[in-house]
Task: inverse folding
């Protein structure tokens, strides 16, 4: 918006400087915790005890990582998280895109009613207990990996966002295809989806991140160690330092009588957020673009 | 931001009711567009299974739940479960905490999001803008379990905050043993995590403002500060109100994910951080009373829903543009 102006007063220069200072300070504040955690995960426990958390490892060490991978808890959890992220995202996108596309077609007269049926679930919900009982006692999903996927398969907000994307595609595209005799399912997959890649990327990323960050449902439904998704493992490791110490004893990674407990916590955090942080620079434009397009279209 | 798709939804509904007379019956419409309805079916099935059936299950709030008899077989007890929650004085603390924290969260995140959006819009260097925007959004994608891990590095006895305090000659604070600082900490973390992401929608609105308005203002000699307060902020008003109404719907729901991950079972911090949802969750583990928990859940849902409708009504009267429906 700040178009180049012919003259800029002293006040404007001051405002510009303050604005830059603030926004850069906020951005730095956003990064600091990450740097601290990464640095301390590569620090030896002894130096962490002595000097505290620092921005640069005072005494470089990878003991935390070797403990983490030797103890054998991280790899299964990685597997679980990757499974629910991949399978969950694919299923979520199929169901979401199908419904969102139908809701974007003007010749479907009850699309408003269906959209409200979906929207209402954002305003009112049954809450913890009925959902818990329904999922465990009636659907029998307790301790199954599906309990981490199915209860959050479709997100009402994501669906309506996707519909807004599809609303932006000219109807003529679908109509001409249906005149040629293609049915709507075929139109969706062969014509609509290929031209909606930015939208698919945005909504798909939202789903993928939600699955990657899943721990609440694991807290409710999962009781077996090896089925813990990464985020829930992180929680276990943080809540329960003995858990780390046991694992350390089993893996035989105890140096100078010191169990690398805190550094292992930090290392777990690093391996958990690693993929997000590494992929983020390539993906972030979709979040901004997607949300901007999806919401402004309205 | 959750509101934006909803707005269009409302618009469609209005248009629809205008030509109601032309509308075919549902069966006719299904016959005409079988494939479209088929495409909707899986999603509808999902919402029935995982949203509407649990809503019906709220009936459990009115029964003395016995697992063997199931929800519908247990005996009806009226409002006993509701009374049980209000019987101990704990409900006052947790309700106050829930409301207090949520109001702080909404206010702090909204103000910061708007500020970030305005500042980002003012940055003319494309690269600075892009990079700062990417960085401030990143925390949103961290789960609360991760955030609680990050805050250990910030707040523990040998964390960076205490190092700074001692370096400045102050006395180290045992954050994890001091309940009074936690509302501030939680608000800061909430802002850290959500404000950057929240700014996207505001920034989109700002980008949509006709630039000729600013040009005219500049010709009239308006300063940058004046432009922000006299043009940008008023233009953002509707979006701000809309998003606030939406978050008001969750005002009686404590942020379980955040509080449980941050505080966990550290009972020293309960006086200022325990919210309805964490309190009930603990109750459920210690002394399973499904009925009581469901009863409170029902109250939360109804109050939240009523609040949204009420705020929306006020918004409708005050500035119809910003109403949700």
Result:
């Amino acid at each position: 918006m700040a178009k180049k102006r012919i003259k800029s007063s002293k006040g404007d220069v001051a405002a510009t400087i303050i604005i830059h200072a603030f926004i850069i300070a906020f951005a730095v504040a956003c990064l600091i915790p990450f740097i601290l955690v990464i640095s301390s995960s590569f620090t030896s426990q002894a130096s962490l005890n002595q000097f505290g958390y620092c921005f640069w490892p005072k005494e470089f060490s990878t003991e935390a990582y070797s403990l983490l991978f030797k103890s054998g808890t991280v790899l299964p959890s990685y597997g679980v998280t990757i499974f629910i992220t991949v399978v969950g995202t694919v299923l979520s996108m199929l169901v979401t895109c199908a419904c969102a596309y139908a809701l974007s077609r003007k010749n479907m007269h009850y699309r408003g009613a269906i959209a409200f049926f979906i929207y209402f679930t954002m305003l009112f919900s049954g809450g913890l207990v009925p959902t818990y009982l329904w999922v465990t006692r009636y659907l029998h999903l307790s301790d199954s990996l599906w309990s981490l996927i199915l209860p959050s398969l479709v997100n009402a907000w994501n669906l309506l966002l996707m519909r807004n994307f599809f609303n932006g595609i000219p109807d003529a595209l679908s109509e001409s295809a249906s005149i040629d005799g293609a049915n709507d399912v075929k139109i969706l997959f062969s014509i609509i989806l290929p031209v909606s890649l930015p939208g698919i990327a945005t909504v798909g990323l939202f789903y993928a991140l939600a699955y990657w960050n899943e721990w609440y449902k694991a807290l409710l439904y999962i009781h077996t160690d090896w089925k813990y998704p990464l985020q829930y493992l992180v929680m276990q490791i943080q809540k329960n330092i003995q858990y780390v110490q046991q694992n350390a004893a089993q893996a035989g990674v105890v140096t100078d009588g010191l169990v690398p407990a805190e550094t292992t916590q930090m290392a777990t955090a690093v391996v958990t957020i690693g993929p997000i942080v590494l992929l983020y620079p390539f993906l972030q434009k979709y979040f901004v673009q997607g949300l901007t397009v999806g919401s402004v279209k309205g | 931001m959750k509101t934006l798709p909803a707005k269009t939804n409302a618009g469609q509904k209005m248009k629809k009711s205008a030509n109601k007379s032309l509308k075919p019956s549902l069966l006719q419409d299904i016959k005409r567009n079988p494939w479209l309805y088929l495409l909707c079916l899986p999603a509808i099935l999902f919402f029935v299974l995982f949203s509407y059936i649990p809503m019906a299950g709220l009936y459990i709030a009115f029964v003395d739940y016995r697992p063997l008899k199931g929800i519908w077989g247990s005996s009806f007890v009226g409002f006993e479960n509701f009374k049980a929650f209000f019987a101990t004085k704990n409900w006052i603390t947790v309700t106050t905490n829930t409301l207090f924290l949520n109001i702080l969260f909404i206010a702090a995140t909204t103000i910061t999001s708007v500020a970030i959006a305005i500042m980002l819009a003012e940055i003319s260097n494309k690269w600075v803008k892009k990079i700062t925007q990417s960085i401030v959004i990143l925390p949103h994608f961290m789960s609360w379990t991760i955030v609680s891990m990050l805050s250990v590095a910030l707040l523990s006895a040998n964390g960076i905050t205490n190092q700074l305090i001692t370096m400045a000659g102050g006395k180290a604070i045992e954050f994890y043993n001091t309940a009074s600082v936690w509302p501030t900490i939680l608000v800061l973390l909430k802002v850290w995590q959500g404000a950057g992401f929240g700014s996207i929608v505001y920034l989109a609105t700002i980008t949509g403002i006709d630039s000729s308005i600013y040009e005219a203002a500049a010709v009239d000699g308006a300063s940058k500060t004046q432009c922000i307060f006299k043009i940008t902020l008023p233009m953002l008003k509707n979006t701000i109100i809309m998003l606030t109404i939406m978050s008001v719907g969750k005002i009686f729901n404590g942020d379980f994910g955040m509080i449980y991950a941050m505080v966990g079972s550290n009972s020293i911090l309960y006086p200022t951080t325990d919210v309805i949802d964490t309190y009930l969750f603990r109750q459920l583990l210690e002394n399973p009373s499904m009925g009581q928990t469901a009863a409170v859940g029902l109250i939360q849902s109804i109050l939240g829903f009523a609040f949204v409708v009420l705020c929306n009504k006020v918004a409708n009267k005050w500035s119809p543009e910003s109403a949700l429906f």
